[in-house]
UniProtKB/TrEMBL annotation:
Transmembrane helix as UniProt keyword: yes
Protein name: IS110 family transposase
Domain called Transposase IS110-like N-terminal: residue spans: 7-144
Keywords assigned: Coiled coil, Membrane, Transmembrane, Transmembrane helix
Residue stretches making up the Transposase IS116/IS110/IS902 C-terminal domain: 213-289
GO terms for MF: DNA binding; transposase activity
Organism of provenance: Acidithiobacillus sulfuriphilus
GO BP, one annotated term: DNA transposition
Length: 342
């Protein structure tokens, strides 16, 4: 018995549905209000519901699974080529329906509520750091207009701000100085908010055995380990470590024709946040090895530029993470890869 495949285009209030009757071949298009969506699928036989991996897609995916339907999320970039003529809700739903039936299509795993909760903490922390950086740069720039020369670095620069304000009391209006001091208090509040989020992530880590195993990898800390577990979930959805590295955008782009393939820089596709965390961790590893005069890093840097070496280490870290999670093993500093038989 063939199950019915539905293409569902999500929106804030009005959803568009597209499906084909398996017995008659009749094409159906239907608009549903948000409050009527689950009622419609509750009265249908279990089928395959395809949606774009967009806002609220994971929520609807969980709810539809509770009703017995199979859910598949497709990246929006894979749906766009199948939109015919003008773009509208009906065309989008039809394109989703057509995309999900491609035999080689890749899908996005539906995240659990726990995964989304952890990722929400990461997103809020990331935004707070951006706001803090903007605030520090603004204070540095404004004081520079009055002749204050603050040293580079957030912590070093903020340490010199009180002395700079004291030196400017005779030349700058009190209302400006008071406002700057108020912004400094706001920076302290941002620091406290960021620290509170990190404490919550630390508490969540204690119950996650996989996170603890990942943190044994050099360059993988609390943020990287928790973000990977919350984003990926089941690592077995990736067939190899290289596929996981490609998901993070850490593999070279390819450009070729006529049998000649040219490798370019890294693709930078996939999750930007995870790629950034891994790259920063890899940079710390490379700098540490340089400081300790490790022979392997000297050999690598003699052949490749510094940033290329950092990305190569990040790629290796991604493959190591895949191996630990798929094989459910511990990190071994003395592990050596077995050479394939000739």
């Amino acid at each position: 018995m063939q199950i019915t495949t539905y293409g569902l285009d999500l929106a804030k209030r009005v959803m568009q549905l597209h499906w084909v009757d398996m017995e008659t071949g009749e094409i159906h298009r239907k608009q549903l209000r948000r409050e009527a969506l689950l009622e419609f699928f509750a009265n249908r036989q279990p089928g395959l519901v395809a949606m774009e991996a967009c806002g609220s897609a994971h929520y609807w995916g969980r709810e539809l699974r509770k009703l017995g339907h199979e859910v598949r999320l497709v990246a929006a970039q894979f749906v766009r080529p199948f939109v015919k003529a003008n773009k509208n809700d009906a065309a989008d739903a039809a394109a989703i329906w057509e995309t999900v039936q491609r035999p080689d299509m890749r899908f996005v795993a539906v995240k659990s509520e726990e995964q989304q909760s952890v990722l929400a903490l990461h997103r809020m922390r990331e935004q707070l750091i951006k706001i803090r950086t903007m605030q520090v740069n603004q204070i540095r720039g404004l004081l520079c207009e009055f002749g204050a020369d603050l040293p580079q670095g957030r912590q070093r620069g903020l340490k010199e701000v009180p002395d700079a304000l004291a030196n400017l009391e005779d030349s700058v209006s009190p209302m400006t100085l008071d406002t700057v001091r108020r912004q400094l208090k706001r920076l302290d509040e941002l620091d406290q908010d960021i620290a509170d989020i990190e404490k919550r992530l630390t508490l969540w880590k204690k119950d996650q055995e996989a996170v603890i195993r990942l943190m044994a990898i050099p360059g993988v800390g609390l943020l990287t380990a928790t973000a990977i577990i919350a984003t990926v979930g089941d690592m077995k959805s990736f067939r190899s470590g290289r596929e996981f590295a490609a998901f993070l955008g850490l593999v070279p782009r390819q450009s070729g024709t006529g049998g000649k393939v040219r490798l370019l820089g890294i693709s930078k596709r996939g999750d930007v946040y995870l790629r950034t965390l891994l790259t920063h961790g890899a940079r710390a590893v490379v700098n540490f090895q340089i400081k300790n005069r490790n022979p392997w890093i000297d050999k690598l840097l003699s052949r490749r530029p510094h940033n290329v070496a950092v990305v190569a280490v990040a790629n290796k870290m991604a493959r190591t993470i895949w191996a630990l999670l798929v094989k459910n093993s511990e990190y071994d500093t003395n592990h050596t890869a077995l050479k394939a038989a000739a």
